[in-house]
Amino acid sequence: MSSLHAVPGAGGAPRPPRSGSSTQVRVEAPGKVNLFLSVGAPAADGYHPLTTVFQAVRLIETVTARRQAADLHGAITLTLEEPYAGVPTNAANLAVRAATLLAQTTGVGDGVDLLLRKRVPAAGGMAGGSADAAAALLACNALWGTGLSQAELAGLAAELGADVPFPLVGATAVGHGRGDRLTPLMARGTYHWVFATSAQGLSTPAVFRRFDELVPGATAPADVPAALTAALRDGDPFSLADALHNDLQAAALDLRPQLADIIAAAESAGALRAIVSGSGPTIAALAPDPAAAMRVANALTASGLVAQALRVDAPVAGARVVG
Ligand code: ATP
Asked: Which DSSP string corresponds to 213-273?
């Protein structure tokens, strides 16, 4: 177990636990890969308008919200189930920020102990922190009996970060705006991915800054190509591979040139395509079937270029209470 920090709960004096309610709620939420990411010129507030297609992948974060001892007076605390490099356990953790926002919004002062089991690589462009925030919102809403609707939770999720609403819904969806205005997308079949992680993360803001330098004349983000929606509708990994696109890839490769070697190694081992996942540095390699995914993962592991090669299928459901 890693260290424990506390921030005060909001909403005045702590209330006693509601009688009859459960003592803990466990929620699972998925990481994501961007099948398509088109980035426009930054607006006056510095944010880049996006068109993106998210797919939820079977790398599952688990947040258990536990009713806490009365003597902690409404604190919101977090413990990592196993140490996980680069993940804060204090008020900066996105799961703690999510629980704190829900407490402030609803006036609940009960506090909570959050237990977090991570499976999504940290700072890897797969929105693990965002999945933790989504899971914490759902878990605390159930534990505290605050009864916010899915739409109200989605509103809080968007306040926490542009990538937080998607893990609430999961599956496959188009994101507009900052990526937080979601429309579900019809997708058939199961896709077989290999995610190649790097020992060192890449900062998302740094990748966007490099994008601005490399593409000074960016305009409005492009629409989702018809070929991509057709590939998903048909459940065709070959056509999907052709349609994968990430506007941030050039910026991520510029900051981390070794990523090009990982892409080449994945494709020569049988991946249909390999691209940078989100803002990187994780590389997402799409395989035609599970056996090919195994060969790609083995080749990447043997190459010594990657920290880990994770075989993962997709799409999967969004955040849900599992216990
Ligand atoms: P995105 O694709 O949304 O940019 P990411 O997958 O690249 O996200 P995350 O793992 O979500 O990156 O986290 C990025 C940073 O946020 C980390 O470097 C870490 O300092 C901080 N952080 C805060 N809370 C968490 C969390 N619960 N899990 C991981 N990182 C967190």
From this structure: HH-TT--SPPPPPHHHHHHHHHT-HHHHHHH-EETTHHHHHHH-TTHHHHHHHHHHTT-SE
Instruction: Assess whether the C-beta atom of 2 lies below 6 angstroms from ligand 1.
Output: no
Give yes or no: residues 233 and 164 share one domain. Answer: no
Q: How far apart are CA 293 and CA 136, in angstroms?
A: 32
The two most distant CA atoms of the chain are separated, in Å, by: 61
- Do 179 and 286 lie in one domain? The reply is no
Q: Is ligand 1 within 6 A of the CB of residue 163?
A: yes
Q: Which residues of the chain have pLDDT under 70?
A: 1-21, 70-72
32 carries an active-site annotation: yes
Q: Is residue 10 part of a domain?
A: no
Q: What percent of the chain has pLDDT over 70?
A: 93
Q: Is the CB of 129 under 6 A from ligand 1?
A: yes
Question: In what helix (H) or strand (E) does residue 76 lie, and over which residues does it extend?
Answer: strand 76-80
Q: Is the CB of 201 under 6 A from ligand 1?
A: yes
**The tokens of 208 are what?**
């966007």
In a domain? residue 247: yes
pTM across the whole model: 0.91
User: Within 13 Å and on the Cβ side, how many CA atoms surround 97?
Assistant: 17
Q: Is residue 7 part of a domain?
A: no
- pLDDT tens digits, one per residue of 274-301: 999 999 999 999 999 999 999 999 999 9
71 among known catalytic residues: no
Total of domains in the chain: 2
Evaluate whether 89 touches 79 at the Cβ level (below 8 Å). yes
Q: 42 and 174: one domain?
A: yes
For residue 30, give its domain range: 18-184
What separation in Å is there between the alpha carbon of 47 and the centre of ligand 1?
A: 18
| Catalytic residue (choose from 110, 163, 180, 247) | 163
